[in-house]
Structures are given as C-alpha cells and as structure tokens.
Write a structure and sequence with these properties.
This protein is an alpha+beta fold. It contains 7 helices and 8 strands.
C-alpha cells in the first residue's frame, strides 16, 4: 500500500474562521505517545519561578469552569494552552487564557455541548462545532479524521461554528502520535495588512505539519502564514526591545483598534 492510500486528512473550521488539520498514516506504524517533541532544557531565568505543569493545568481548568465551561471542555482547552507554553509558543499558552474566559463569560462561545456531524462519507466529514471552544471542536474533528484514516486511508473533516483553537500543532501532533502524518490549518480574523494596503484584510492563517521520523526523531512545523502570529506581536509590545519592525507595530495598532483579535 503506498503513502497516498494511507493518508488521512482532517479539516476543522468555522463560518468566520476555517481550521484544518490533516493526519496521514505513515508506512511505519510506530506509536509516539510516550515521546517528547519539545526541548526539556530549563528556560527559566535565575529570578523566575517555575510552575509545575499540573498546577498550571489545575489553575486554567478552575478559571474556565468558574467562567461557565464544563470540566471536560475546560480540561481540553487547558491541555492545548499548556502544550503551547511547553513547546515555546508563549503567544498561545497561558497568555491567552483571559480571552477564553471572557468569551465564555460573555457568551461569545458556549462552554457546554458537543459538535455534530452534518454530513460524512468514508474519508470525509462536515461538522458543526456549535460555537464551542476551539479545542473541543478541533479534538472532535481530528479524532474523527484519524478514525476515518484508519478505515479508508484518508480522513478529511471540515467544521463550521468553531472558535480560536490554540496552537495548530496540537492537532497535527494528535495524528502523529497514532503513527500518522498530521496537518492542521485555520483562517483567522482579518488583522493583517496586504502589501501596500491601507486597511487590514488577511488573517494570520496558521498551518502545522507533523510527520514521524526514524527513532525518536520527528518533523513538526507550526507557523503563521503571515510574518508573525498576532500573539507574538503583543508579547513583543510588552517587551519593547523586541518590537523592532514597523509592520509589527502596525499590527498592534489595528488589532487594538478593531478589537477582533482571534488568531
């Protein structure tokens, strides 16, 4: 059986933000659940405190359940944010918790419920995320894509009614840990300026690819399709020495002005 016959694709998105993740079953069916795909180096400065991962997860779950999310949904979100920090994507870790808390408190998105499959075939599906937390929709869709890939060789799932789903790499890795190749994509709010444009029109539209390698090796790409993710722009603004590009500063200005940052 060739690679194309063992390819599973999942796509998750919304009417205003389209998220995609792909899982491709590799020829080598090794399991990757016990491996680490991030640096274990101590990155804390001498004057900084190190917080245990379990404590970070507990704190985030408590915040989300207090805001109105169920424990299951809160936990799914916490795990994605925690992985973002562990992997060094600080723009998409605990840094974003207040956004999710606010969205649930203000009923921008739902803290309870389940995604619904609207239409499906052997290797594809269309899902309604029911305006739930992005990680809840993303996990549902990727798990469905993986299941389809195992049976049909490919799984491609598209969703509407989703929300911000954290790091795209979380979903690509979810497939890779089951011996597959993974892909995750999403569109975002229009906060980026096209070349020579006076108004923002494009999203940061991230993409992630993950593929198992030999031994403990693996290939994992997780990037914005713009110069930088908007979350990193805000971090750069707080650390002004790092905010050295005019285009970055412009992104901060328009994001604050529009107040529609969802990327």
């Amino acid at each position: 059986m060739n690679l194309l016959q063992r390819f599973s694709l999942f796509t998750c998105g919304s009417l205003s933000r389209y998220q995609s993740v792909i899982a491709i079953q590799s020829v080598d069916k090794k399991q990757f659940n016990s491996q680490r795909y991030y640096s274990t180096d101590d990155m804390a400065a001498p004057d900084e405190s190190v917080v245990a991962k379990d404590e970070m997860r507990r704190f985030m779950v408590d915040c989300m359940t207090t805001a109105g999310a169920t424990e299951s949904h809160a936990t799914q979100l916490a795990l994605v944010l925690l992985e973002g920090d562990v992997r060094g994507h600080y723009s998409h870790g605990l840094n974003r918790l207040d956004m999710y808390v606010r969205d649930v408190q203000q009923k921008v998105c739902k803290g309870d419920g389940e995604p619904v499959i609207l239409k499906e075939k052997a290797g594809t599906a269309w899902v309604d995320g029911n305006n739930l937390l992005g990680p809840v929709v993303g996990n549902f869709c990727m798990d469905l894509a993986i299941e389809k890939a195992k049976n049909a060789g490919i799984g491609w799932v598209v969703a509407k009614g989703s929300n911000h789903y954290g790091i795209a790499g979380w979903y690509a890795l979810r497939a890779m840990k089951q011996g597959m190749l993974g892909m995750s994509m999403t569109n975002t709010s229009p906060i980026s300026y096209p070349t020579r444009s006076a108004v923002p029109a494009l999203g940061t539209n991230p993409i992630s690819l993950a593929a198992p390698g030999t031994g403990d090796d693996a290939f994992v790409l997780d990037m914005a399709s713009t110069t930088v993710a908007i979350g990193k722009v805000f971090i750069g603004e707080r650390e002004t020495s790092k905010l050295s590009y005019t285009s970055w500063a412009m992104c901060v200005h328009i994001a604050k002005k529009s107040m529609v940052v969802k990327a």
